[in-house]
């Protein structure tokens, strides 16, 4: 999902869900939600398709505040990227193809009143296939400028997963991952880099740097800062010292691309394991925490099972529960929730 706060101070969300259809195939359904700041639903639209690759990645409001532009891929009659035009009620008005065949991850950013900057993947015979492909378009979806950035060699560049374009006053940045492992994108044994480019409005580079190279780095978002620099946030994974335990890794650079600070935040491993998940008539709990209560809660918020755990491993009979999704929580002796999760019964 990605979201914006629009000119009416509503939160507009777009993304896609994945389901298994009646033929046991995976299909993706795009959605659009609008909620107010206290979480009340205002309107929503769902698009169901039998096209497996049916994505909506990002959305932006037009400067006149009359429409939204959603950036989708493989949506209607196309195998590439498209701009879906929506009114303020999220009704579809029109759809345009993205120039140069750019698709996926987009990060639309207005660099002036009439130009949107996008970053995405490339298409064969139209743009560079394994590079950060950057274009600017006008409101008619016509191409203004194009450029691409890549580490070169036999390595693949990939746009930042959530926000790969950021602008603060006259400072514009593009971000991605260099040497992405397409077949093992999270736990790779490759060395990779955060890839950051500071550009002019015509997409010519001011400077271009890579950060990392001593482990596997995967960039999620960038943010241009008030001092003319940029913050990058993603994951770092060192297969020689970690076993599928990625750390959050943050890099701050100044206006010249020089690192001013970094921070690595290890993700805490859960202290309990609930298995099997998905399960049937019994679930097992293995925990390092002594003397806790274990609760199972249905989707209506009702506690349907509660059991005291007086050792490090317990079995709970779930035969009485109907099939579906449940939540669970572990509560310590001070009645404090120490861990939560979800469990699905077939």
- Could you tell me how far the N terminus lies from the C terminus, measured between alpha carbons in angstroms? 27 Å
Query: What portion of residues belong to β-strands?
Result: over 45%
How much helix is in the residues? under 10%
Secondary-structure element pattern, one letter each: EEEEEEEEEEEEEEEEEEEEEEEEEEEE
Regions with pLDDT < 50 over 5+ consecutive residues?
Answer: none
* Record field, number of beta strands: 28
Main beta sheet: 5 strands, antiparallel
Give the rounded overall mean pLDDT.
92
Helix count, per DSSP? 0
Shape: globular
Structural class: mainly beta
Radius of gyration: 23 Å
Explain what you see:
The chain is mainly β and 346 residues long. The chain is built from no helices and 28 strands. It has strands at residues 2-5, 11-20, 26-35, 41-47, 55-61, 67-73, 81-87, 92-97, 109-110, 116-120, 132-137, 143-149, 157-159, 165-168, 171-178, 193-199, 205-212, 216-224, 230-237, 247-253, 259-265, 272-275, 282-287, 292-297, 303-309, 313-317, 324-331, 337-345. Strands 13, 14, 15, 16 and 17 form a five-stranded antiparallel sheet that branches. A four-stranded antiparallel sheet has the order 1-2-3-4, with no helix packed on it. Strands 5-6-7-8 form a four-stranded antiparallel sheet, with no helix packed on it. A hairpin with a 5-residue loop joins strand 5 and strand 6. It is globular, with a radius of gyration of 23 Å. The model has no long low-confidence stretch (mean pLDDT 92).
């Amino acid at each position: 999902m990605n979201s914006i706060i629009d000119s009416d101070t509503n939160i507009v969300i777009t993304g896609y869900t994945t389901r298994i259809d009646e033929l046991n195939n995976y299909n993706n359904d795009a959605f659009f939600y609008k909620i107010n700041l206290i979480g009340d639903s205002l309107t929503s639209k769902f698009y169901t398709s039998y096209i497996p690759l049916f994505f909506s990645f990002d959305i932006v409001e037009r400067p006149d505040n009359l429409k939204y532009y959603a950036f989708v891929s493989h949506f209607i009659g196309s195998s590439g990227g498209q701009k879906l035009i929506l009114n303020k009620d999220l009704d579809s008005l029109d759809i345009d193809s993205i120039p140069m065949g750019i698709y996926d991850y987009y990060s639309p950013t207005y660099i002036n009143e009439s130009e949107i900057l996008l970053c995405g993947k490339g298409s064969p015979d139209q743009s560079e296939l394994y590079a950060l492909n950057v274009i600017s378009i006008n409101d008619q979806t016509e191409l203004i400028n194009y450029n691409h950035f890549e580490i070169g060699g036999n390595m693949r560049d990939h746009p930042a997963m959530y926000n790969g374009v950021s602008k603060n006053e006259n400072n514009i940045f593009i971000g991605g991952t260099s040497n992405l492992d397409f077949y093992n994108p999270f736990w790779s044994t490759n060395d990779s880099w955060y890839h950051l480019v500071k550009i002019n409005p015509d997409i010519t580079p001011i400077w271009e740097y890579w950060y990392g190279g001593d482990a596997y780095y995967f960039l999620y978002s960038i943010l241009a800062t008030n001092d003319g620099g940029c913050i990058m946030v993603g994951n770092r994974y060192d297969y020689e010292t970690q076993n599928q335990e990625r750390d959050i890794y943050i890099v701050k650079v100044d206006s010249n691309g020089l690192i001013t600070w970094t921070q690595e935040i290890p993700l805490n491993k859960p202290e309990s394991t609930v298995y099997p998940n998905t399960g049937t008539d019994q679930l097992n709990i293995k925990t390092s925490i002594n003397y806790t209560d274990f609760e199972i809660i249905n989707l209506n918020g009702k506690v349907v099972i509660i059991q005291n755990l007086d050792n490090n491993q317990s079995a709970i009979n779930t035969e009485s529960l109907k099939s579906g999704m449940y939540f669970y929580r572990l509560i310590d002796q001070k009645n404090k929730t120490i861990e939560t999760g979800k469990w699905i019964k077939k």
